[in-house]
Design brief:
The chain is α+β, with helices and mostly antiparallel strands. It is built from one helix and 16 strands. A hairpin with a 5-residue loop joins strand 11 and strand 12. It starts with a helix and ends in a 13-residue tail after the last strand.
Length: about 280
């Protein structure tokens, strides 16, 4: 009799415990689902906000109005312009990329607004795009033919090596007007690599390296938050008013913030056309 009584009590508590476990498991699954749903909602809202912000930014620019044009003597292909003052500009006389039959001397020309040549630099790198920039103090900074980053003082009397050659080839350079930092676009200098506009399928590696005005390394940016490579050929670099860095990269524009965090990319209108952004 007693044995049967205890058996009934045990069965009763076993049933209650089993029901408790079932309820607990249900609530764990339910709360996990709620947390997952909340995270997905946050990601979707963030993506929608970013898309709306991108559209807003892209529609802010008004139509350009031609103020003045300058014909610079001795320049057959202008790759880039760096403004010294309202009366003077440095202009690059570049070659076609990878056109080895073009032996036109590559040089940087300082011109006034009438197109008169005031000075020339004859040792810039041959095939690069954004290979010169202006510092906050109006010094010229450029990539030399020996792949060093050179600073020429604004009185044109002193040349200083800001960044010496590394295993990576410097491909573009930009000096921040706010911080004075020098940003260098670099590519992995390995012969025989396969280049495509798609950063995922190209075997060539690119990166953006930040130095201070004295050449001290501050930061290197290669990947986004998911570990995906950001750059193949960083051709031109610039900076907007809030410190974001914009890079003309392959077939798209890549935007990172001042801390090196990836913000977004822009590939142009989604109509099958290819975007080839320059400076």
């Amino acid at each position: 009799m007693k044995s049967s009584h205890f058996t009934n009590i045990g069965s009763h508590y076993l049933i209650k415990f089993t029901a408790y476990l079932s309820q607990t498991k249900f609530f764990i699954i339910f709360f996990s689902f709620c947390i997952l749903l909340d995270k997905l909602s946050q990601m979707l809202c963030q993506e929608m906000f970013q898309e709306a912000e991108n559209i807003r930014l892209l529609t802010l620019m008004s139509s350009p109005v031609l103020q003045k044009s300058i014909t610079v003597k001795g320049v057959n292909r202008c790759n880039e312009i760096a403004v010294v003052t309202s009366e003077m500009v440095w202009v690059s006389n570049g070659r076609e990329m990878m056109n080895f039959d073009d032996w036109t001397p590559v040089k940087l020309i300082l011109s006034d607004t009438e197109g008169n040549t005031l000075a020339q630099i004859t040792d810039p790198h041959c095939y690069l795009k954004g290979f010169h920039t202006m510092s906050k103090n109006r010094d010229l900074i450029y990539i030399a033919d020996n792949e060093n980053i050179i600073k020429l003082s604004n009185d044109m009397k002193t040349k200083t090596t800001v960044v010496t050659k590394t295993d990576w080839m410097p491909y573009s350079v930009f000096c921040s007007k706010s911080s004075g930092d020098v940003l260098v676009g670099m590519v992995d200098n390995v012969p025989g690599q396969n280049y495509t506009c798609d950063v995922l399928s190209s075997s060539i590696k690119g990166k953006i390296t930040r130095y201070d005005q004295f050449g001290l390394h501050i930061q290197t940016v290669e990947y986004d938050h998911a570990g995906q490579r950001l750059f193949v050929f960083p051709k031109f670099i610039t900076e907007n008013n809030n410190g974001d860095v914009i890079v003309s990269e392959g077939c798209r524009l890549v935007v990172i913030d001042q801390a090196g965090k990836y913000r977004f990319s822009y590939r142009g209108p989604p109509l099958g056309s290819i975007l080839l952004p320059l400076g």
